[in-house]
Design goal:
The protein has ten helices and ten strands. The chain is α/β, with parallel strands linked by helices and 269 residues long. The termini are far apart.
């Protein structure tokens, strides 16, 4: 994948620490911008991703996440596994020596980069090509929808390294593919390619790499065609299914539809 050309860069919000945020009308694009390192991730990048979520104008309805170069994101930067770690950041050894409370706070901070993509007022789309490994896989899973190129390679390698996936990827993975398949993918660390990703529900659609941008534009346009308030209510309904019984979901549908009808009739709050 190449970077966006100048005609597509409507408003540059910021560009730092391997993350660029641009906004064009109702569509924001978050781009990982370190293709030389296959968009490897670091705490600085995670903080930039968190800032991207906080910087979105209220007019944004769609957020597209993409990576420059041949890989979406090859996962955590290998510098994290060195004794010194990243400059100004606690190394893995420092983290291990700290208290459980301090470690919990630190990981929770890192996780913030992966949580805002599912806000009910947005629909997020990951456009994924090449490697999406470990933290890269979890970042793609953080989005609502995934369109993948035919060269995509998903893998959850944390378990193979003696760690666990801790960047919010386990919940969406199980929701998408089920417990047994999620366990097998995580415990083996194997690659999941485009055809399988689409078949098992990891990807909404798989397309040739040259068609990835066009497929994202088409999906964004289709999502924008529906009234924003109806999409927000529908997303909230669907997100709440796992925590509700059948009868509770029926009641939630009735309440949501009542709000929509009152809004359409001009009787809303």
């Amino acid at each position: 994948m190449t970077s966006l050309d100048d005609s597509e860069l409507n408003e540059l919000v910021f560009d730092k620490d391997g993350v660029r945020l641009t906004v064009e009308d109702a569509v924001a694009t978050v781009t990982l911008t370190n293709p030389a390192k296959r968009n490897a991730q670091s705490p600085a990048l995670w903080r930039a991703l968190t800032e991207a979520g906080r910087s979105l104008p209220g007019s944004v309805r769609i957020v597209v996440l993409r990576g420059e170069g041949q890989s979406f994101s090859a996962g955590l930067d290998r510098q994290a596994f060195t004794p010194e770690g990243f400059d100004g950041e606690p190394s893995f050894l420092d983290m291990a020596r700290g208290s459980e409370a301090d470690l919990d706070v630190l990981i929770a901070e890192y996780q913030e980069a992966f949580t805002w993509w599912r806000r009910s007022d947005l629909v997020s789309i990951a456009a994924v090509q090449g490697h999406a490994i470990g933290a890269g896989f979890q970042l793609a899973l953080a989005c609502d929808l995934r369109i993948v190129a035919d060269d995509v390679q998903f893998a959850m390698r944390e378990t193979s390294l003696g760690l666990v996936p801790d960047l919010t990827g386990t919940h969406p993975l199980v929701s998408l593919v089920g417990y047994a398949r999620a366990l097998e993918i995580c415990a083996t660390g194997r690659f999941v390619h485009a055809e399988e990703a689409e078949r098992i529900g990891l990807a909404n659609i798989a397309v040739p790499a040259a068609e990835l941008d066009g497929a994202v534009r088409d999906l964004s346009a289709a999502l924008l065609a529906a009234p924003r308030s109806a999409v927000i209510e529908t997303k909230a309904l669907l997100q709440g299914v796992s925590g509700r019984s059948y009868e509770e979901q029926r009641a939630a549908e009735r309440a949501a539809q009542g709000r929509r009808l009152r809004d359409l009739a001009g009787l809303g709050d």
